[in-house]
From TrEMBL:
GO terms for biological process: metabolite repair; nicotinamide nucleotide metabolic process. (6S)-NADPHX binds at residues 58-62, 129-135, 140, 158, 262, 325, 376, 442. This is Bifunctional NAD(P)H-hydrate repair enzyme. It comes from Dysgonomonas alginatilytica. AMP binds at residues 412-416, 441.
Length: 502
């Protein structure tokens, strides 16, 4: 797992690295800048004009070092330092003086010094990084406004300048660089993983700058970024002598009239994820549909034609998933309440089951311990009874909710977050915008339920389910495009996603 740290922790690890590796801070800056420059060199066109905007702190120092490295590789550069008060950090000053020996470096002290940015230029943004401590104003705000208005591609060093590493609730949305790509150092930054960065960071690349592993290991955090190597360790190997009983029984309670597709998708995904036996509990109208579309599943018919209203006894043998396409009929609410009374093992709760819970405090209290709920942000806000001001606040609320009700929350979106009852957060690293379409969530519910049935611990089921789901989505997008892919395609790629973890 990659750890995610706050600003003071990053500073501490920097200092610790400098001591343990016997280097100076300027050495570390050079290493960081070289790592970013190498990435840029791979795709930048040497004939294109590049404008570098540096600040006066260490983020500026990085940008000036990157400029020097690019100059040595014959890129065409124009360098500006925004320095209204001409107070430079020590390492920034060293890099400024080095660069001035090679090229002209212009200072921007006030609005009239800001250059016109030609249309087809690339901008390298090194105004502010993790040291930002207040929203931008004055000439800094003016520079950011001009860069954003130019609509050129901007590559940001460490952070889109003007964006805070954690909470941006008090920030000025006009004072943040809109970056094509952010090369962030060593650790993903929390705000870049939240929807708060949607307008400011199209893509985040984490650049390893060789910070001391011992210092990183010793620094504690509750925030993690899931890597492939983490997911690879999770699948439980299959024994030669296993039989269908070995891989558990799942019961998916899904579907209503007009929404049987959700039941079909969750059923297929559950099977493709490896469950031994799957039973679907569906309204009577859905029996033929299910039996035809998913012959591998057994079907239990509800007494009602259009909605699910009750589940039988003997449900303890199953891992249960409930929600896809069930609607919010009163009968279905009774089912959910009854289910929570009867079944006290962790279950997966999604979609309309969450909408039912949202309106009823007593149902929240009855959610079985260690269950996994899988809301998208709108469902989550409904569950909270109010809209969060930003992704950061939503994440805080999710931590409180998970802790209060002793459950796991999978907050779906780009970098889906898995929040534990202990308020730890695991961000997923797979997936793409092609998955933002109706049915994707039903697939995830089927997958996680399948893993619970196969005796994965709830946290592992959530982590592996979310990772595989995203990976299947990435494979589907590769073959069918983000526009052309369907949740059904993702199900077809679950097998290849498993293989990719080998
Ligand atoms: N381990 C690493 O990640 C490394 C990071 N490096 C780079 O260092 C910066 C952080 O540098 P720092 O000097 O601390 O901060 P900034 O350059 O972001 O800001 C400079 C300075 O500006 C002042 N300030 C803050 N907010 C404002 C504002 N709104 N208006 C005006 N001035 C402001 C404040 O005093 C700041 O200290 C990190 O992002 C990386 O790019 C190292 O180079 C290598 C190791
Ligand atoms: K920056």
């Amino acid at each position: 797992m990659v750890k995610i740290f706050n600003v003071s922790q990053i500073k501490k690890i920097d200092g610790c690295t400098v001591i343990n590796q016997g280097i100076t801070s300027i050495d570390l800056m050079e290493r960081a800048s070289l790592a970013v420059a190498e990435k840029l060199i791979r795709f930048l066109d040497p004939d294109q004009c590049i404008l570098v905007f540096a600040g006066t702190g260490n983020n500026g120092g990085d940008a000036l070092a990157i400029a020097r490295i690019l100059l040595s590789r014959h890129f065409k550069l124009y360098v500006y330092i925004v320095a209204p008060d001409e107070l430079f950090s020590d390492d920034c000053l060293v890099n400024k003086e080095c660069l001035e020996r090679l090229t002209d470096v212009k200072l921007i002290k006030e609005n009239q010094d800001i250059p016109h940015i030609p249309e087809d230029c690339i901008v390298i943004d090194g105004l502010f990084g993790s040291g930002l401590n207040r929203p931008l104003e004055g000439v800094y705000l003016d520079v950011v406004t001009v860069i954003n208005a130019s609509h050129n591609k901007v590559y940001s060093v460490d952070m889109p300048s003007g964006m805070f590493v954690e909470d941006n609730a008090s920030n000025n949305p006009e004072g943040i660089i809109k970056a094509e790509k952010v090369f962030t150092f060593q650790f993903p930054k929390l705000s870049l993983l939240l929807p708060d960065s949607a307008n400011y960071c199209k893509k985040m690349t984490v650049v390893n700058i060789g910070l001391c592993e011992k210092c990183i290991k010793e620094e504690e955090t509750d925030l993690f970024f899931i890597e492939k190597s983490d997911a690879t360790q999770l699948p439980i190997p299959r024994d030669n002598f296993s039989h269908k009983g070995t891989f558990g029984k799942a019961l998916l309670i899904a579907g209503s009239y007009g929404k049987m597709g959700a039941a079909v998708l969750s059923a297929r995904a559950c099977l493709r994820t490896g469950v031994g036996l799957l039973t679907m509990h569906v309204p009577r109208c859905g029996v033929d549909i299910l039996q035809t579309a998913v012959p591998e599943a057994m079907v239990q018919a509800d007494e009602f034609p259009e909605n699910v209203s009750s589940v039988g006894d003997n449900i303890d043998q199953f891992a249960i998933g409930i929600g896809p396409g069930i609607g919010t009929d009163d009968k279905t609410k009774d089912l959910l309440s009854d289910l929570f009374d009867k079944y006290r093992k962790p279950m997966v709760i999604d979609a309309d089951a969450l909408n039912i819970i949202a309106g009823d405090e007593s149902l929240k209290e009855k959610i079985p311990s260690k269950s996994i709920i899988t809301p998208h942000p709108v469902e989550f806000d409904r569950l909270m009874g109010g809209v969060s001001i930003n992704g950061y606040e939503r994440l805080q609320k999710a931590g409180e909710f998970a802790n209060r009700y002793d459950i796991y929350i999978v907050l779906k979106g780009a970098y889906s977050a898995i929040i534990t009852p202990e308020r730890k957060v695991y961000f997923n690293s797979t997936g793409n915008p092609g998955m933002a379409t109706g049915g994707s969530g039903d697939v995830l519910t089927g997958m996680i339920t399948s893993l619970l049935a196969q005796k994965y611990l709830p946290l592992n089921a959530a982590i592996l389910g979310v990772y595989l789901h995203g990976l299947a989505g990435d494979l589907a997008a590769k073959s069918k495009s983000q526009q052309g892919m369907l949740p059904s395609d993702m199900i077809e790629y679950i097998g290849k996603a498993y293989r990719a973890l080998k």
